[in-house]
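Q: I'm building a small set of examples for a reading group on sequence design. Run inverse folding on the following structure and report the sequence directly after it, with nothing in between.
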């Protein structure tokens, strides 16, 4: 723009094989200014980041399940004890 170069001239000067790329960049700049060049793609997470997030969530779920199963186990033990007492009582 500063040197009034055409799209093909600018592409040749900057060794860009497709002059349409220059047009797209100018169009983005005209529409959004410098912010039009910001990378809006989602950041790709690495396997270790996925694993950390998954294991943190998994630990939370496992703790919740463990608490539930412990409570269920305690209830069933009490129920069995009550049932054993009622069966052992002599009938009158």
């Amino acid at each position: 723009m500063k040197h009034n170069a055409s799209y093909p001239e600018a592409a040749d000067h900057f060794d860009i094989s497709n002059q349409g790329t220059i047009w797209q960049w100018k169009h983005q700049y005209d529409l959004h200014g410098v912010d039009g060049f910001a990378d809006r793609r989602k950041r790709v997470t690495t396997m270790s980041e996925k694993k950390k997030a998954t294991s943190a969530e998994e630990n939370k779920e496992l703790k919740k399940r463990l608490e539930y199963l412990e409570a269920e186990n305690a209830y069933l033990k009490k129920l069995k004890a009550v049932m054993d007492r009622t069966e052992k009582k002599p009938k009158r």
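The chain has three helices and no strands.
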